[in-house]
Structures are given as structure tokens and as C-alpha cells.
Amino acid sequence: MTSRRVRIGIDTGGTFTDVVAVDEETGATTTTKTPSTPGNPADGFLAGVQKVLDMLGITDAAAAIEAVSHGTTVATNQLLEGKLDRIGFITTEGYASVLEIARQSVPDGYGNSYFWVKPPRIVPADLVKTVGGRLDHTGTEVRPFDREQAVAAARFFKDAGITTVGVCFLHAYANDTHERAMLDVLHVEHPDCVVSISSGVLREYREYERSVTTLVDAAVKPKVAAYVTNIRRRLDELAPDVPFYVMKSNGGVLSAEEVVHQPITTMLSGPAAGALGAALIAGTAGFDRILTCDGGGTSTDVTVVIDGEPALTTEGTVGDYPSKIPMIDVVTVGAGGGSIAWLSPEGTLKVGPRSAGADPGPMCYPSRGPEPTVTDAHVVLGRIPPHLLGGEIPLSVEAARGGLEKLGGELDLSLERAATGILEISAWNQANALRQVTVARGLDVRDFTLTTFGGSGSLLACRLMDVLGLPRTLVPPNPGNVSAFGLLTVDVRNDYVQTMVTRHTALDPAAVGAAFAALEAQAATALDGEGFTRDEQKMQRTADLRYVGQAFEVRVPVHGEDLDEVAAAFHAAHRQLYGYDFAADPRQAVEWVNLRVSGIGPIRRPAMVPAPERTSGSVADAVSGSRRVFFDTEWVDTPTYTRTELQPGDVVAGPAIVEEFGSTVPVHPGFRATVDPFANLLLTKES
Question: Distance from CA of residue 415 to its chain's centroid?
């Protein structure tokens, strides 16, 4: 029996499941990894919980576990892989073609229209049914709801064996009466049907995006519900009724009981947790403007964080589907450790987005994947040791060498040049993603500290600093577990939106205040259900504004009752993003579009404990050996350092390799790594 109380964060990735346990009393963290189980991710989840409990010597899980937080890719992977069951769509009479019409836009501009193939619809035309009834944009009923047509639609889907349906009626964001009536009909006529209605998913105008977002929510609901329910059941066998939270893409968590009703909010939950964990670590280290670079086995996720707050967007997409839910503005590229190197039909070298995943994995893995990957290039060049996880997974240098020699032969390149070329392409893919979240947003990338984490996130850090002109890179301790750690740093959070398209000069402050109050009442009720008292709850107001005639909005905070201050903040934000504004031009009117409220229930964050200072010895004591490593143009005998033996103030000059359980940091010639008071590595160029 133990009196220790711990909170556990678990991030399930494509290759490994990362686990972090934080002692509630001391703030001490314990980290580990276990292989992911794609066939049944719940197996890897429970294995991770048990593994970290065993490491802590905890035998009574029910008494020890305070809470469990989880980041999952179940919904994301289902969409990316296109594994969607047949679903039905019910919309307003006359609008059956909303999915075909979409936005009439072609990716990369109309110069690409000849080659672009329109992605398949999320719902085929034969599974779209329309129902009479009409509201105007204010929510006023123009034609009554046609119950007879609604009953016919429900019976059609029941007879066709369609058990998942999305409902999106015109202008339901202003009045949900007709959608609620349709939901009641479905409950009566087709009680086994899983239903999502747009007014419950996204109370915001723009019919196409609202329709697709609602359909995506409906499509992933059965699988996410089954997954979360399965984990909840198995977790209860280990620790009955332990609080179980699931990470959302908006930077908050929600209880598992609630998240099954809004599964679309779990999109990109892993990257969101990583960004928040990195923000806390870097902020504690004294950096307020950071770029996060989360390198995994399949992909690399990047985002920008200013003053501890990651950038948010509602313009995200998952696969081919726009999803206008609030999410941390993450750009994902297929440049992970498992990304496959291949030859295009034109004979040029490509890296990703296809990945070897966890099974069979890279060629150097025991399961021996058939194609060379980024990890194979690293191991052949000596950048990573011939094993992973401290020796748990042996790597075959010879198998990787054979694959890369074959690929290099097709390109008439030596082994070293082929491997270096693979890493160079991967680095530029990551650099371009970092430019997307900075330069494309009106920010100077050179003003930021790069924070790298994930199993492969730090392997190309020195090269990224060269490519982008970055001043420094911060590598946290246990970087492979930052996303799991981030799960323990985030609050319960729900977002609510109400469309109110009105010119600023015609705005009624009382109406704005009443609309915000109504949204805050919804948020407060939800937080009541999560166990937060009213004095604990926090509300954040924001609004989406634009110039009249624009097709896009800029989100700005709403701090008080002065609406002119909000308009002024919009002008400033527009100038930062686009380089100009119309603050001094009275001909360009400002228009309010959406009002938003975030309801936040604060959770206690883990304490960031400084590392003990060195009392004896020197940095040389951390040297574990040496091996030949290829840097840029030549092989170099390179010392290897055990990271856990490094102490604050230690400086490691390149060339060097710093190794720990879950990751490796190559320090290139001309760079050095300094250990800060919190055991972070700070990579800088030699002056």
C-alpha cells in the first residue's frame, strides 16, 4: 500500500505510446514509452499505464492514480486513411448539392485545375435527403418544418441500413428549432441511429463548412465512442472511477463521458498537447516566443506560441475535409522518422509522406520494413545509436545500409550522399512547415526559439537553425514524452460560437452583451458538469471581425464593454497579418461576424523543478564512449554523452551526440549545447 498520488498523461502515436506520471506532492516526473498497438490502441494505452506504475513501485492503482489524461489519434487517423462507414446527410429542401458545390476552389490556384482531381464526397449523392422548411438568416421561420418529409427521410435511412446521419439545415446557427425537430423524428423512427446536428457541433454560418464539419463529427462518433468507452471500462478494472480526460484540439481537455458526444473536438489532440507542454517548458526557461517542432515516427507537427498561448484557428482541415472547430494552428508534414525515401517517376529523390509506421517499420527495425526511411539514414550515418529506447529495440545498421546502397545506386550516389540527401529533404520539409506558421502569418521566424521534441524532433535541429537563421534551439529533458507531459498541463475547455453578422457602426452593445452572456451560460453549465464551481470557472471572449466585402475574418480578444477597442484591436491584428489596414479610411467599414466564448476549468499544473547543481566532477563524466558519425562532408570520431549525467552549466561542444532513453541530439560541428537550470539543452552556433 502506498500513499503516493500521481497524475498520468498518455499520448498514443503511430509508433510509440508515451507515458508521463507526475507525483502530486513532489512534482517529480517519471517517463516511459511502450510500442503502440494499431490493431487495438487501448492495449498500448493500458500497457503504458501498467508500465509506469511498475516503475514507481505502485501496486494499488486505485489509491494512487489521481487522474488520467489522454491524447488520441483515433479520429484523425480514421479521416486521413479515409476509413469512413456509409453515412447519411439530411439538409434543407433545395440544397441537396451543397457538398458538390462546396467552395468552387482549387488547391494551389486555378493554374492547377487541369491536374486536380476533386476528392470524393464524404456522403454520396444517393444518401442525401432533403426536408422542407426554411429559416432566414436571423432565425425567423419562413416555411414550417415538414414533418412528413422528415419521417420519410428517417425511414429511408433505417431501411437502407445507414446507422450514422448528419443533419444540417439552412441558418440553423441562428435557430435550432428545425434541427431539434429532425432529431426527435430520428429518435422515434430510427432509434439505433447515431446523429450529429450542426447546431450542436458548429453554431456558425457558412453552410458548406458547417455541413462537412457536422458530417465528420457523425462519421467518427461511433469509432471514437467505442474506443473511449473501451478504455474507460478497462481503466475502471484497474482504478475504478478515476477521472479520465481526453485532449481536444483547442488546447483543453474534456471528460471522456462528454467527449463521446463531440468527438470531432479530438482532432489533432496529440499535437495540441505537445504545443502546450513545450510552451510551459520554454516559458519556464525564459522564452516567450517559440516555435514547436514535434517529430514523430510518421509526421512532424509545428506551431507558433507567443506569451504561452499557441495560435488558434478555425480554418483547419483533416485530410480532405475542412473542420471549422477551434484548433491549435498546427501544420503537419509527412517528415517523421518512419518517412519513406523513394524515387519519383521522374527519377528524383522524395521523402514521405508515406510512412513505414510501427509495423513493419524502417529497414533497420527487427521487423525489417522493405523500404529505406529517415531513421535508416540517421542510423547509417551514426547520428543515432544502433538501438532505441535504451536498448529495448535493437537496430540493424547493415540492413539499413543495404537499402540505402540500393537506393543510392539508382541515383548514382554514394551511401553517404544518399543518406545525407534524405535528411536534407526532410529538414527542408520541416523548415517549410515552420515558415508556414511564421512568415505566412506576418511573423519573423528569426525572432523565435525553436523547441524540438518527440522521438525524432531534435535530430535535425542544427540543420533547421542554419536553414532558417534561428538563434537557438531548446531541447527539453525526455523530449519524446513532451506531448504526454503536455496533457497534464492543460485545463478543461469548451468553446462556443454564435454568428452575428453586423456592421460595427450598427452594432447594439446590449445585443452583443446578451449574446456573450448566453454563450457564457452554456459554458458555465458544461463546467458545472465537469465539477468546477462557479468561482473557479474562467470565461474568455473573442470575436471574428473583417472589412465589409472580405471573405475571411481576424479573431481578436474582447476584454470589456468598449466595442471600439475591439475594432481598434482588429485593425492592428489585420496590419500584422497582411501588412496593411483601413483604420484611417472611413470608406472601409468594419463588420462583426462571430462571437466566441471559451469556458475554462483550471487544472493544477505540474511544478517545474530546477535540476540540482553539480557538486563534483565535470562534463567529461557524462561521456559514454564514441563512434564514427558522418557530418556534412566527412566521417568524424564523435564523443557520445549520456544526457542524464549532464548537469546545469555544462557545455557540450560539437561534434557530439547527446543520448537519452527516448531520443538523440546530434550537435554538429560549429554548434554547442548548454545545459540550463531546468536540464534543458540550449543549442547555439559557436560565435
Answer: 35
Helix (H, G, I), strand (E, B) or coil at 142: strand
Average pLDDT, the chain: 88
Instruction: Name the CA radius of gyration of the chain, rounded.
Output: 26
Whether the predicted pLDDT of 200 surpasses 60: yes
Q: Which residue has the higher pLDDT, 554 or 262?
A: 554
Q: How far apart are CA 323 and CA 315, in angstroms?
A: 7
Give the bridge partners for 91, in sequence order.
Answer: 130, 168
Coil, strand, or helix at residue 475? strand
What's phi and psi for 250, nearest 5 deg? Answer: -90, 5
Q: Which of 299, 293, 427 lies closest to 354 in space, CA to CA?
A: 299
Query: Would you list the DSSP string of 299-349?
Result: -EEEEEEETTEE-EES-EEETTEEE-S-EE--EEES-STTEEEEE-TTS-E
Residue 586 CA to its chain's centroid (Å): 40
All three cell numbers of 394: 535493437
pTM equals 0.80
Closest CA to 595 of 640, 542, 635: 542
Of the candidates 433, 486, 434, the one whose C-alpha atom is nearest the C-alpha of residue 253 is 486
CA distance 32 to 50: 11
> By C-alpha distance, which of 638, 305, 637, 633 is closest to 486?
305
pLDDT tier for residue 313 given thresholds of 50, 70 and 90: confident
Sequence-distant (6+) residues with CB within 8 A of 472 are 449, 450, 465, 682, 683, 684
Cβ 374 vs Cβ 341: under 8 Å: yes
Residue 640: what are its φ and ψ, rounded to 5°? -110, 140
Tens-place pLDDT, residues 472-504 = 999 999 888 888 888 888 888 888 999 999 999
121, 503, 588, 654 from 572: Cα distances, Å: 39, 18, 15, 43
Residue 503's H or E segment, with its range, is strand 492-503
pLDDT at 2 over 70: no
Alpha carbons 331 and 655: distance in angstroms, whole number: 31
CB atoms within 10 A of CB 36: 24
Give yes or no for residue 271 having a pLDDT over 90. no
Q: How far apart are CA 576 and CA 578, in angstroms?
A: 6
Q: pLDDT digits over 591-643, tens only?
A: 999 999 999 998 877 777 788 877 777 889 899 999 999 998 899 999 999 99
